[in-house]
Amino acid sequence: MSLPATHREVRLAALPEGALTPGHFEVVTAPLPAPGPGQVLVRNRLMSVSAVMRPLTLADPDTLGLPQLLHKTGEVMRGPALGEVVSAPGRELAPGTLVRHRSGWREYALLDAAQASPIDPEALPDPAAHLSQGFTAWLGVVRGAGVRPGDTVFVTGAAGGVGSLAGQFARLHGAERVIGSTGSRHKADRLTRELGYDAVVLRGAGPIEERLRAAAPDGIDVLFDTVGGEQLRAAVAVARRNARFALVGALAAQLSDDASAPTGISTLALIARGVTLRGISALDHQDAMPAYLREFGRALREGALTYPYTRLTGIGQAPRALCELVAGRHLGAVLVEL
């Protein structure tokens, strides 16, 4: 296979102060890297963007203990991608093998062989689903909150890449009532019409706690939280006894000017109601991946669950894709075809 001498990649030009714009990024042409012993060169075909990729400015980066969330100016952005192996000298990965990895935002990725995970083409009916945030959604529902039959579940950020799947997984695991939150009437209508939500709390239409009480007059058993902030406080106020909270994201802080901003909640209320809060990260639960893939693949094939996403074409669209996602322009995942 003849390879080009150069390829394009997206670098962070400046850390944002305020709204994220495409001007915070630059698409540059760089020499095509050559794989050495133990390395793999992959031609990226599809990459995903998510709100967690928004470049963060932190006064003390060590406070989070999550260096993978941080981008430095001048560096190539990174994120999940699917691609074809084009060269793997001395490795078992044959050219043409489809792999998943975390070096998106570039047309070709040079990886250590261990960083390239071959994709089972039979596991999911749509290859794009391998770039979904379904694993995080499944973990929060199954291991984080332990959703069970009869539960009333509140999913914050329900129109996002995680939330759009979390509500559906909650229903599959027996939830009796699923409530979501989002910032637009259009997305709220789609959540109830297309994704099985029973009710939606519209952010910005009044105090979240009041609207959540109206949607769940008997309280909630489960919170699946991608947002934090006011919505987490409202969930604590409306929690039933022995409610279980799975915290998988903190977008209220990450999309603000203070990515490490705390959320003030009543510890007395947590104690009085026996509420359990659990932060959950996919990094700690890789052993669950086979069980997740079996359930996700079966649900997709049977039509019991849908994977909503928007697809843009061309690496030059990647900055726009992230900016539009952060601004709440899309429902579900946002993918870029390279």
Structure description:
This protein is 25% helix and 25% strand. The chain has 338 residues and is of the alpha/beta class. α1 packs across α2 (163-172). It starts with 5 loop residues before the first strand and ends with a strand.
Short description:
The protein is α/β, with parallel strands linked by helices and 338 residues long. The protein has helices spanning 134-144, 163-172, 185-194, 208-215, 229-238, 251-254, 267-273, 289-302, 318-326; strands at 6-12, 25-31, 39-49, 81-87, 98-101, 108-112, 117-118, 152-155, 177-182, 199-202, 220-225, 239-247, 276-279, 309-313, 333-337.
Which features would summarize this protein structure in a list?
338 residues, alpha/beta, 7-stranded mixed β-sheet, 6-stranded parallel β-sheet, 15 strands, 25% helix
Apparent shape: globular
Largest sheet, in brief, is:
7 strands, mixed
Question: Could you give the order of the helices and strands?
Answer: EEEEEEEHEHEHEHEHEHHEHEHE
Structural class: alpha/beta
Task: List the topology elements.
Blueprint: E1 6-12, E2 25-31, E3 39-49, E4 81-87, E5 98-101, E6 108-112, E7 117-118, H1 134-144, E8 152-155, H2 163-172, E9 177-182, H3 185-194, E10 199-202, H4 208-215, E11 220-225, H5 229-238, E12 239-247, H6 251-254, H7 267-273, E13 276-279, H8 289-302, E14 309-313, H9 318-326, E15 333-337
Parallel strand pairs: 8-9, 8-11, 9-10, 11-12, 12-13, 14-15
Antiparallel strand pairs: 1-2, 3-4, 3-6, 3-15, 4-5, 5-7
Helix pairs in contact: 1-2, 1-8, 4-5
